[in-house]
Structures are given as C-alpha cells and as structure tokens.
TrEMBL record:
InterPro entries: P-loop_NTPase, Rab, Small_GTP-bd, Small_GTPase
SUPFAM superfamilies (alphabetical): P-loop containing nucleoside triphosphate hydrolases (SSF52540)
Name of this chain's protein: Uncharacterized protein
Free-text function comment from the UniProt entry: Intracellular vesicle trafficking and protein transport.
Pfam families registered for this protein in UniProt: Ras
Length: 208
C-alpha cells in the first residue's frame, strides 16, 4: 500500500527543502536519512523528492523532503518548490570555502525571496566533517552565520552518518514547537505536496 495515499497513517505532514551549492552532499544527506545508506551521487537534475515516516514527540509525522539542484541552470526550476515549506536546510561543504560564502551571497537571498512561510525554520548544515584534515570552514564560522541568519546549526557527515538523524529531528522538533507551522502541517499543505510538478492552476489555488 502506498503510504502517501493513507492520510490516517500520520498526524502531521511537513515539507522540507534542501538547498545549497552543487556537490555539497544534499542528495547524500537525504539518502543517508531516508534509507540509511551513503552514495556519492551525481548532481540532482531539477528536483528530487523523498518521503520519510517518523515518530517524534509522540506524533506520527510524514516528511516530504525536496532535494533541489544546486547548479545555476536549474535555479529557475526550483523557486516554486519553496512554496509552503515549513523547514529549509541550507547545506555547505566544510572543505569548500565557496559553498559557505554562497550561503549568504545566493541561498539566504533565495529563501527571503521565495519562502512563503515567515515562520519557516531554517537549519544550517556543515557537511563532510569526515574530511576533517581538509576542513577550511571552522565550526565557529558556522555558528556565527547561523546566529546572524536565525538558523539552527549542526555539522554532520552523510558518509559516516554522524548527526544526520539529529539534523532532521532537531529541525522537525522546532517545527512542532511553532504553532503556525503545526497548523499548516495538519491541514493545508496536503493539497499538492506529492506532485512533482506544480499544478497548472497554481496561480489560482495559491493562498497568498
């Protein structure tokens, strides 16, 4: 039975979005969280999408996690996927300085531009801590960025699975603590969340 067709199987449905430069490990993080495996994946084309069932705080949760392409040429395809997201995970590679710099130069601006939830919870993730000897972005810098932009912060490794589960769980727990996002997760977001492409009548069905 397809769980996506069984609304009674969960209490809340949350839409999460992974963003960041190409190659920072967004798809690997998602795979590590949803299937407990790790692969060096080729860059995402447009948007990938996975479902994860989770029980947290006594609530049965269904997470619809959207993995966006980091490459410039796909950027226009992904703007509509920000709509209705309760959580946004900004990922950088601790071994590549430009992926961290681009968070403020590119990605944080996109969140401001496209996010439709003013209470949306943001999580900053420094990935690839298994490559400690190649690190160029310090944990202190990550903490400072998170404080400036109002994000949660964690460092993890998709490869060794260090902090991967914790990353998603901390984000979801924060969403559960936010009444406006909780209300949305129990009702409105179920509309078109499982469709790969925005509906043709998106302009009329959008609430805002």
């Amino acid at each position: 039975m397809d769980p996506s067709n069984s609304p009674g199987e969960f209490d809340y449905l949350f839409k999460l979005l992974l963003i960041g430069d190409s190659g920072v490990g967004k798809s690997s993080l998602l795979l590590s969280f949803t299937s407990d495996t790790f692969d060096d994946l080729s860059p995402t084309i447009g948007v990938d999408f996975k479902i994860k069932m989770l029980t947290l705080g006594g609530k049965r949760l269904k997470l619809a996690i959207w993995d966006t392409a980091g490459q410039e040429r796909f950027r226009t395809l992904t703007s509509s996927y920000y709509r209705g997201a309760q959580g946004i995970i900004l990922v950088y590679d601790v071994t590549r300085r430009e992926t961290f710099t681009n968070l403020s130069d590119v990605w944080a601006k996109e969140v401001d531009l496209y996010s439709t939830n003013q209470d949306c919870i943001k999580m900053l993730v420094g990935n690839k801590v298994d490559k400690e000897s190649e690190r160029v972005v310090t944990k202190k810098e990550g903490i400072a960025f998170a404080r400036e932009y109002g994000c949660l912060f964690i460092e993890c490794s998709a490869k060794t699975r260090v902090n991967v589960q914790q990353c998603f769980e901390e984000l979801v727990l924060k969403i559960l603590d936010t009444p406006s996002l909780l209300a949305e997760g129990s009702t409105g977001v179920r509309r078109n969340i499982f469709k790969q492409k925005p509906p043709t009548d998106a302009s009329t069905s959008s609430c805002c």
